[in-house]
Each structure stands twice: as C-alpha cells, then as structure tokens.
C-alpha cells in the first residue's frame, strides 16, 4: 500500500509541470507515538486542480498504519486475565485476541475524499464523497457545503451537511458481542465576521445524530459477576442513538512585532450530548512571521470532559448500559505544540516542492485515577503522546 | 439532553449569529485587507492539517466532542 501511495504521489508530482495557476499538491506525513509504545504512520495528500474559471476538484488520500504494545499490555498490566490483547487507546482495532484477521500485529486504514467546488463572486458550493476502509470497519460519507459572502465580503455565512454510512464487522468470535451498521448525520452553520483590518471572529454550531451500533466490541467491561464466559468480563452495552450539539467561537487579533505581522487567536468549544456527556475546549495560537517566507506557530490547548451518565468506576454486570471506553469517561488533557512553515528557494526547478512545514504536538492526559480504563498505566493516570508532521507542497 | 434542550441551544446559537451580523461593525474595504489576506490571519490555513486533526486526533486523544470531526469511524 505504501509503495502504491508513493507511486501515485510521484506520478502526480511529475505531472506538475503542465498545471494551471492555483493548482497544487500538498503532502504530509504524520508520525504518532504514545507512552504505551503505540506507533502510527499516516501519509496523506491533497491534490487541488482547477477545471474552468469557477470549478475546482480536490482529491485527498489518507493511509494510516498503527502498531504497538498497548493492546498487549492491557489487562496484563493490571493483573492478567485470559484476554491480554485488548486495546482501545491507539485507534487500532484488535487483531491479537483471536488472530482471525491474519494481518499481524499492525493494522492499516485507508481513505479517500473527492470534492468538487464551485466558486463565483463570493458564492461557494461544494459536494464530495469520502470513503474509508480498515480490516473490520468501513465508512462511506457524502457531504455538501456552501458559503456566502456579503456586506462587501466582510461577512461570510457558511453551512455544511454530511451523512456517514458505516459498518463494523468484528474479527472472529468478537462478532457475537457487537458489530453492525451505524448512521451519522451532521449539520453545521457558521459565520465569520471581519471586524477591523487586523481582527475577525467566527462562530459555528453543529448538530450530530448517531444511530445504530455505537462503540466497538473489543473493549469488554470488568464486572463484579464472575460467572460470565470470560470470567468477570462483559461486552460493552451502549444506547442505540445519540444526539449532540457543539458550539464554537474564535477571535483572532493581528499585530506587528517590528515590521513582521503576527496574530493571536483564542477558540472556545462547548459540546453536550443526549448521554449527558459534556466537554469544553480552549485553544490558544500565536502565529508569527519570522521572515516574509517563514512563519512560526505556538499553540496550547486545554480539554475537559465529563463522562456519560452511565459510566461507573465499578459495574455489577446487571446495568442496562456499561462501557470501559475512555471516550465516554471523564478526563482532562493538555496539548502544547509548535510549527514552522517556510518556502524553498525560488531558484529551485519547477518540479521541486515550493513549501515545507514541520510541527510537533505533545499531549498529556489525566484520567483522574480511573482504573476502569485498564488500557492505561493503572499506577499512573497520566498518559502522554506525541505527534510530529512533515509537509511538502508543490505548485502545479 | 432532550430535543427541547437541543432546540433551545440551536435557537441560542442562531440568535448569537444574528447578533453578530455586521450592522454594528465597521466596514473594512477590499483595499484595506492586505493584512487579512496573510496566512497568519487565516482561521484554518492548512487543509491537510485540519483533515488530520479531524480524522486522527480525536480517537488518539480518546475524546468526545473535542474537535470538529463529524463522526465516521469506530475509533477502535
């Protein structure tokens, strides 16, 4: 798959010479590693090609390979058990318990998105389709969106809608504990307002409804009742629908340090759903020109989540809903990151990349001592992960 | 959260958006937007970064509602 992806990227870069102005190819490779030795490699690309005066086509490709040890640590760390291959942190689905997939100890996911964009005099309309596939999961998602500039383009009203048609088909014996179709529909509306030549703000509201099989079967729950098929473990049980609303607002202020333009922005996001799970996110960014062609960015992010109404530190086993999925439990996280963006010399030949960027984000997560989340180090609820990205861009 | 609460939140968001409409804002003319067109003044200048943040970051962080990713995938 990697060889195929690289060959596609090479072909696209060689096709660069005959392109129109505004056509470009952006590529990025993401490297992820966490404290449990989970490693992920994710190359992605985005090809933008103009078709006539008002229409462009965007093609994005993603590949994601995840491997690591956390699935093997899992319950072994907290005292053993006959099912040591359980993981829900890494983003990788389970292979090791039954070995049913025969794919080894890593998993890949690949996805592609094609979008057509029509833009004319401040009106934008887009339509696209996204599809992704991994060993035990597939997703297909059509989407539409648009934007309308008015008030001499000081104000932009935007909207979007997407529908996901997903299906989970767990490995081997795990299929008896879960799996099946999931439907997600998401609608959003946003507004961006220019305030002054150096400031703007934006607000966005999103409603999402999810139905069907939510969650996954690889994360069994430890219960007090021991006469279960797996000695005190039960399959996750979740409601079959969820409604969620998210509101976000961002304010961005520009300034000059000497002659160099920079900006500071703050974004706040609030989320609440019908499972009574709430979260707040605050993100700060400082973006600064170091030279005309080089930009430096620092960011910090704080996230706080309050768990769903049915999460518990200890389950008896007779509850209607039960889960050990960290996504539904309370925790806090803190992120700090830096990014550098610059251009290659103008003297470079036309087939060479024009821009590059390099970034690293470090995340700390505090699970507040919750040992139900056995995939983490139980003696220390603090968990860390790092994400590095290298990007190259070509003008076609 | 019941549907009535969802509706109230949606109405509040709509009112907030209406309140933000430009009647009370000074108009910034096209010729004065040189700084606003600079990448450092963009709300989301890097599409691929936004895509990775939306698709990969939430499941690796293990969060619900922490990013704008709409919702495909199982995170497993």
Write up this protein.
The complex is a heterodimer of chains A (396) and B (76). Chain A is built from two helices and 18 strands. Chain A is mainly beta. The longest helix of chain A is centred in the first third of the chain and has 13 residues, at 2-14. In chain A, 37% of the residues are buried. The model of chain A is unreliable at 1-18, 68-101 and 376-380 (pLDDT under 50). Chain B is mainly α and 76 residues long. The two termini of chain B are 26 Å apart. At the A-B interface, strand 1, strand 2, strand 3, strand 6 and strand 7 of A face helix 1, helix 2 and helix 3 of B.
Give a summary of the structure in a few sentences.
The complex is a heterodimer of chains A (396) and B (76). Chain A has 396 residues and is mainly β. Chain A contains 2 helices and 18 strands.
Which helices and strands, and how do they pair?
The complex is a heterodimer of chains A (about 400) and B (about 80).
Chain A lengths: L1 H13 L9 E11 L4 E13 L3 E13 L2 H8 L28 E15 L2 E12 L2 E14 L4 E14 L11 E17 L2 E14 L8 E2 L10 E2 L6 E17 L2 E14 L4 E12 L5 E12 L24 E13 L11 E12 L15 E14 L1
Antiparallel strand pairs in A: 1-2, 1-18, 2-3, 3-4, 4-5, 5-6, 6-7, 7-8, 8-9, 9-12, 10-11, 12-13, 13-14, 14-15, 15-16, 16-17, 17-18
Chain B lengths: L2 H17 L27 H9 L1 H5 L15
């Amino acid at each position: 798959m990697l060889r195929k992806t690289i060959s596609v990227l090479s072909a696209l870069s060689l096709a660069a010479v005959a392109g129109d102005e505004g056509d470009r190819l952006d590529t990025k490779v993401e490297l992820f590693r966490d404290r449990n030795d989970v490693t992920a490699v994710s190359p992605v690309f985005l090809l933008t090609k103009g078709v006539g005066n008002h229409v462009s086509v965007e093609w994005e490709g993603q590949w994601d390979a995840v491997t690591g040890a956390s699935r093997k640590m899992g319950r072994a760390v907290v005292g053993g058990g006959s099912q040591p291959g359980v993981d829900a942190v890494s983003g990788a689905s389970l292979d090791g318990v039954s070995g049913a997939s025969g794919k080894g100890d890593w998993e890949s996911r690949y996805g592609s998105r094609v979008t057509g964009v029509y833009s004319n005099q401040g009106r934008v309309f887009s339509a696209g389709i996204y599809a992704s596939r991994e060993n035990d999961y597939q997703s297909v998602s059509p989407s539409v969106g648009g934007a309308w500039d008015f008030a001499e383009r000081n104000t932009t009203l935007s909207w979007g809608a997407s529908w996901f048609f997903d299906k989970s088909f767990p490995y081997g014996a795990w299929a008896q504990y879960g799996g099946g179709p999931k439907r997600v529909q998401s609608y959003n509306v946003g507004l961006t307002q220019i305030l002054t030549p150096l400031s703007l703000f934006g607000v966005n509201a999103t409603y999402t409804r999810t139905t069907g099989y939510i969650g996954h079967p690889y994360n069994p729950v430890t219960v007090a009742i021991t006469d279960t098929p797996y000695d005190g473990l039960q399959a996750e049980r979740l409601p079959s629908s969820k409604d969620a609303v998210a509101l976000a607002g961002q304010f961005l202020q520009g300034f000059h340090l000497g002659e160099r333009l920079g900006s500071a922005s703050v974004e706040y996001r609030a989320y609440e759903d019908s499972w009574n799970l709430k979260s707040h996110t605050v993100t700060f960014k400082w973006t600064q020109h170091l030279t005309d062609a080089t930009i430096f960015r620092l960011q910090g992010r704080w996230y706080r989540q309050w768990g769903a109404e049915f999460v518990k530190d200890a389950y008896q086993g007779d509850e209607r809903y039960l889960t050990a999925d960290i996504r539904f439990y309370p925790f806090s996280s803190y992120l700090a990151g830096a990014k550098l963006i610059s251009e290659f010399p103008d003297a470079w030949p036309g087939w060479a990349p024009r821009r590059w960027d390099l970034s690293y984000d470090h995340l700390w997560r505090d699970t507040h001592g919750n040992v139900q989340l056995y995939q983490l180090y139980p003696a220390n609820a603090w968990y860390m992960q790092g994400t590095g990205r290298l990007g190259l861009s070509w003008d076609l | 959260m019941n549907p009535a609460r969802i509706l109230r939140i949606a109405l509040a968001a709509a009112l907030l958006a209406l309140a933000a409409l430009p009647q009370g804002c000074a108009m910034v003319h096209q010729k004065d937007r040189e700084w606003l067109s600079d990448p450092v003044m963009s709300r989301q200048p890097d599409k691929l970064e936004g895509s990775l943040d939306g698709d990969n970051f939430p499941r690796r962080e293990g969060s619900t509602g922490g990013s704008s990713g709409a919702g495909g995938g199982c995170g497993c």
